[in-house]
Design goal:
- Helix content is 59%, strand content 2%.
- It is an all-alpha fold.
- The protein folds into 2 domains: 369 residues, no CATH class; 101 residues, no CATH class.
- The strands form 2 sheets. A 3-stranded parallel β-sheet has the order 4-3-5, with helices on one face. The chain has a two-stranded antiparallel ribbon with strand order 1-2.
- Helix 19 links the parallel strand 3 and strand 4.
- The radius of gyration is 25 Å and the shape is globular.
């Protein structure tokens, strides 16, 4: 009994220790404050928390949230959920915390921990099973995927955090080819094809950005695989043998995504489709692939030096992994280029980098992708495609550590691997969630119980309007009353003048009163039916 137990402990120690290290590095403000500090900022963080809370209230059939696509904001505009990410695929990892009676903001913190653990576990399992590497090598690769700098730099956009469905899609593809090679494809391949389509649909429902990036990367990988004779032969053999299963899988995936597509298209028609100039500022530049941001522990000083100081919207351009990590990963993947999976991975990532980058003279191949690839025009922050780099990076680091198995190189390889993890570390941003809870509770207490809906304008000099909008959204849930206020990736028609809901002068008060009257007229509400909070009456 002692020997199997010792073997089990040796196998579990590396993943558990590195997972604990990654969670601490990523969420130390939350952990060390007893969950009083929320990461990252009181803007998008509270908005995404609201979306998940709306999904949960829809699941539990709350009175105001019975329509999944119409949360009680922007009253009485329908389909407002389609103005942003729906996060429905992330709900199963948020709802259990709410069912255990944790507060919404605490549940959101626990949700971030949960999806980070799932990211780590999914990549660990993929590397361990598909590459047959050691537990230590798999753990270091999983760390880089789950807690790499491109992911931590987007912690204020938590909808980008859950990417484990992408890993499950890759795992399904690996199993598909393995079953074909072993001759067991007749029974297993249809299941793996269903797993692939299910993972794609789940990733899109979890995060449209990550889901679209997954589909785009798979399309590029398919084209790259066609260039390799061995893979091309295998692909054609699988297609010929399972054409029916492929058709069924694609049909089921399309049917599952049809409601999402219908609602997003309706929202796009209402608010207008994006134009390319809206995405130009958030296309990666060449230096973006080496930039880690001003909060990075080792390379933060680079933010104030050429060429990084000129990056537009630099908070979106932080795609680097570190000097040593980049060199180790590229060198190792090149050394393993004879492996078909690694060769396709390298080619795919090279094509994505070359396609997404903005070059001198404001030239980028992405312009053609934006205009001609379905769904690409919804991607404004193209830089976020850089998070896909954590996948080949995880493979490369794991293979590097595995090559260092001989005792003469083991410790040197481990030291390099740990330094690669250190390069990902950054100073985390946070805010105290307790004062915001008090502000929301005070606002909810001001809302009259008989109001069908309300509009809130705050008098402040130190808070941006979006935070006041979010206060109203959360107070609406607490008071059980719909609100005209709202904050999202897009605003409904006629909302423009109501966006800046901060009163700094009597002129602001008059401007908002007139805008609210215009809103009531535009949406055929009874005059004065919207209760005013913080706004003078006629």
């Amino acid at each position: 009994m002692a020997r199997p137990l010792n073997t089990l402990l040796r196998r579990l120690a590396p993943p558990l220790l590195l997972l604990a290290l990654g969670l601490t590095a990523a969420f130390y403000p939350t952990l060390f404050s007893g969950f009083h500090r929320m990461q990252n900022d009181p803007g998008d963080t509270r908005h995404l928390n609201y979306i998940l809370e709306h999904d949960y209230l829809w699941l539990t059939r709350a009175r105001l949230d019975r329509d999944l696509w119409s949360p009680p904001i922007f009253y009485p505009v329908p389909n407002a959920a389609a103005y942003t990410e729906l996060l429905l695929g992330a709900l199963p990892f948020y709802a259990p915390w709410r069912l255990m009676r944790f507060a919404p903001d605490t549940s959101f913190q626990l949700w971030m921990f949960t999806v980070s653990i799932l990211n780590f576990g999914a990549m660990y399992w993929l590397i361990r099973r598909c590459f047959a590497l050691s537990t230590l090598a798999s753990s270091l690769g999983a760390f880089l995927f789950a807690f790499g700098s491109p992911r931590l730099n987007q912690l204020n956009h938590q909808f980008l955090l859950p990417q484990f469905f992408t890993v499950l899609a890759l795992f399904s593809i690996a199993l598909l080819f393995r079953a074909h090679a072993s001759g067991a494809c007749a029974r297993r391949c249809p299941l793996f094809l269903l797993g692939l389509s299910g993972a794609v649909a789940a990733q899109i429902y979890t995060s449209y950005y990550q889901g679209w990036f997954l589909v785009f990367a798979l399309a590029v990988a398919l084209g790259c695989a066609m260039l390799a004779r061995t893979l091309r032969r295998e692909l054609f053999a699988i297609i010929r043998a399972h054409l029916g299963a492929i058709a069924v899988s694609v049909s089921l995936c399309a049917a599952a995504l049809a409601p999402l597509a219908a609602h997003y298209l309706a929202a796009a028609k209402a608010v207008g489709f994006r134009r390319f100039w809206e995405a130009e500022g958030m296309l990666p530049r060449f230096q973006s692939w080496f930039y880690l941001g001003g909060e990075n522990w080792l390379y933060g000083w680079m933010a104030s030096h050429d060429p990084f100081i000129y990056l537009p919207q630099e908070w979106e351009q932080r795609l680097g992994l570190g000097v040593v990590t980049t060199a180790v990963v590229l060198w190792t993947l090149f050394q393993h280029r004879n492996r078909p999976a690694i060769r396709v991975t390298l080619m795919t990532w090279l094509v994505i980098v070359l396609t997404a980058t903005m070059y001198r003279g404001q030239i980028s191949p992405w312009k053609w992708v934006f205009h001609w690839v379905p769904g690409a025009s919804a991607i404004r922050a193209v830089c976020r495609i850089g998070m896909l780099a954590t996948i080949p990076a995880a493979f490369g680091l794991a293979l590097f550590i595995d090559r260092a198995r001989p005792s003469t190189r083991r410790w040197q390889g481990l030291a390099v691997g740990l330094f690669c993890l250190l390069e990902q570390g950054r100073r985390c941003l946070w805010y105290d969630k307790r004062p915001i809870r008090q502000q929301v509770a005070a606002l909810a207490a001001e809302i009259s119980p008989g109001c069908p809906a309300f509009y809130f304008a705050c008098a402040t000099l130190d808070r941006p309007a979006l935070e006041c909008q979010l206060d109203a959204m959360w107070a609406a849930l607490e008071a059980g009353t719909a609100t005209v206020n709202g904050y999202s990736s897009n605003n409904p028609p006629q909302f423009g003048d109501l966006t800046e809901n901060v009163i700094r002068s009597p002129a602001d008060d008059e401007r908002l009163r007139q805008a609210l009257q215009h809103w009531e007229q535009a949406y055929r509400l009874d005059p004065g039916s919207v209760c005013r909070v913080g706004l003078a009456r006629d």
